[in-house]
Amino acid sequence: MNMRILGYSKKWDKLQKPIHTTFRYPRKDKDWCEGELVQEVHKPRSKDREFLQNATIVRIEPRQLADITHNEAVEDGFINLYAMFEFIGKNKSEDFHRPINKLTLKVESKWN
Q: Is a pLDDT exceeding 60 seen at residue 11?
């Protein structure tokens, strides 16, 4: 079975938790689905790519950026909500008015 890759640009502390969240804009080809098994990978498009773990998407919540709370931003690995918005703006040229998905993942197996 081919699992899709869920890539991260940095090794967030949250990835050590058995259940964690991440925010992702909907994919144009095939969006993420609840129950989907994915491979979480650090630097997915680099020769230094590192497979971290397999995880299952247990919940998807469509959100607006304006509705994300300070606590959710901190749970996601940021020091505050402003830092999260700054990261999204720096790493994506996405429209801040576009919906974003809050994905909740459950770790199934670690690679290391």
A: yes
How far apart CA 31 and CA 25 sit, in angstroms, is: 9
SS3 17: coil
Quick one: what percent of the chain has pLDDT higher than 70? 91
Pairing mode, strands 19-24 and 50-63: unpaired
**Domains of the chain: residue spans and CATH:** 4-110 (2.30.130.30)
Contact partners, residue 46, CB within 8 Å, separation at least 6: none
pTM score: 0.86
- Helix intervals (H) in 2-106: 70-75, 81-91
Nearest partner of 107 among 9, 14, 1, 4, judged by Cα: 14
